[in-house]
Amino acid sequence: MTGTPSRRAEPDNGALALSGQLGKTVQRLRKAYNLSLGELSEQSGVAKSIISQIERNETNPTLATIWRLAQALDVSIDRVLGTPEQNALVEHVGKGETPILVSEDGKCKLAIIGWLKTVEWLQWYDFTAEPGGVLDSDGHQRGSVESLSVLEGTLEVSVGEETLTAATGETLRYRSDGRHVIRNPGSAPAHATMVCLLKASVME
To answer: What crossing angle do the helices spanning 37-44 and 63-72 adopt, rounded to 10°?
Structure first.
């Protein structure tokens, strides 16, 4: 490769319960640019070992990880995920086509029900957590805000030194530009809708 590919502000998807297409696509694009694992790691900021695991479909990458790889490879998230372009104003996404993010403990799942094209600034998910499940997230862009509306069960959110709990029908809103942790402290599964607004100027 003779130069660094131009960066495009496209977002990404994470911990795939989709198929093995992600790893194959990342590897194909990396080789098309004649990039070694180390070079792609340097350009994307993603650890070489993680990229290797993604290509072998041995890990569930986060949304931020796939976004960094998409930027480094100069492609849209749709192409990384193998999602076909839709020209129609109305779009139908089947259950099996919905990308799924999974927490490290495997007990929390986030189905990406928002439009992938808005992931850079607006993300929304269908969130489920088994009893004891923990979703530990690094901070997003400065001023980002998340809104977690509990549909069933109980969820607990820790931001900095503060921890708040919401039951069915309640909503928690909190800054997400620092480390934030969502837990299911109950003995029953929890279900919620999560919306993340990145770069939210209302918090400045």
So the answer is: 110
> Residue 122 burial by CB count (10 A; 0-12/13-18/19+): exposed, middle or buried?
middle
Same domain? 124 vs 71: no
For the cut 80, the answer to whether the pLDDT of residue 74 exceeds it is: no
Residue (of 69, 86, 83) closest to 11 by Cα position: 69
32-53 pLDDT, tens digit each: 778 899 999 998 899 999 999 8
CATH number at residue 180: 2.60.120.10
In a domain, 148, yes or no: yes
Q: What is the pTM of this model?
A: 0.58
Do the Cβ atoms of 81 and 116 come closer than 8 Å?
yes
In a domain, 11, yes or no: no
